[in-house]
Design brief:
Elements lengths: L5 E11 L3 E9 L1 H22 L9 H6 L11 H17 L3 E8 H7 L6 H18 L3 E8 L4 H14 L12 E7 L5 H18 L4 H14 L3 E7 L2
């Protein structure tokens, strides 16, 4: 494990369907993290006043855009929901965050390998390789926090194994600059919520063919986020 005076934070969440699986990472310094939290707090405070939401409503992209759960008050207000989403993405960009995005074609993965790793483990591994490389170029280490997921103990064990023997594939890495991950309830961590907002909209842009109106809204949101995106890839085995 590499030690360094520079410490970054990487927040991870996933977005997927039966055919494709993606994870997004929001990478920040401590000062950028503080700006991110302040910016997102301001967005939900404004949304709370305008739409009657709870002060600590969770930024959950699917619920926001589908007017579900805490965001049920947005039903019939797609334009307003997109505006809230846009302000949240602007807060991510304004904080100076770096966005990393990795995906995999699930059908091809399962078709190529007799005993394939889970799509989550594959995309998480690829994302951590990218983050490790980013940190190496800046003499930094990276503390990773991810949304809770089933089998997270198994994934923690797999990552520990990579630090001993290296990741498989054409770009092997021992993830020497990666600390964690720690899996947390996304409701408690705005950084993970930011990653959720990123993962959802980038996956929709690549994979979902909605109505022309929905596609225009998606493209407009991705355009807002684009200044922060430093890596975006889908692995097709």
């Amino acid at each position: 494990m590499v030690t360094s005076g520079v410490r970054l934070r990487l927040f991870i969440d996933e977005s997927y369907d039966a055919d494709d699986y993606y994870v997004a990472g929001v990478l920040v310094t401590e000062s950028q993290y503080n700006r991110l939290v302040t910016g997102l707090d301001e967005v939900r405070l404004h949304a709370g006043v305008k739409f009657g939401l709870e002060p600590e409503v969770e930024f959950h992209a699917h619920r926001l855009m589908q007017a579900q759960g805490e965001w049920a008050c947005m039903k019939g207000q797609l334009h307003e929901a997109v505006a809230v989403y846009r302000h949240a993405l602007r807060a991510i960009v304004a904080a100076g965050a770096v966005v990393l995005f990795e995906g995999v074609d699930v059908r091809r993965l399962n078709g190529r390998y007799r005993y394939p790793d889970s799509p989550y483990e594959v995309t998480l591994r690829h994302l951590l390789e990218r983050a490790d490389g980013w940190c190496a170029g800046r003499d930094a280490t990276c503390e990773v926090t991810a949304d809770m997921i089933d089998r997270q103990e198994d994934f923690a064990e797999a990552i520990a194994g990579y630090t001993r023997v290296g990741t498989p594939g054409f770009r092997p890495s021992r993830l020497e600059r990666i600390l964690g991950p720690e899996w947390v309830d996304s409701r408690t961590e705005l950084g993970v919520q930011a990653a959720d907002m990123v993962a959802y909209i980038l996956r929709r842009d690549r994979e979902v063919q909605g109505s022309p109106k929905a596609q225009r809204a998606t493209r407009s949101l991705v355009h807002v986020l684009k200044p922060a995106i430093r890596h975006e890839r889908k692995w097709i085995p």
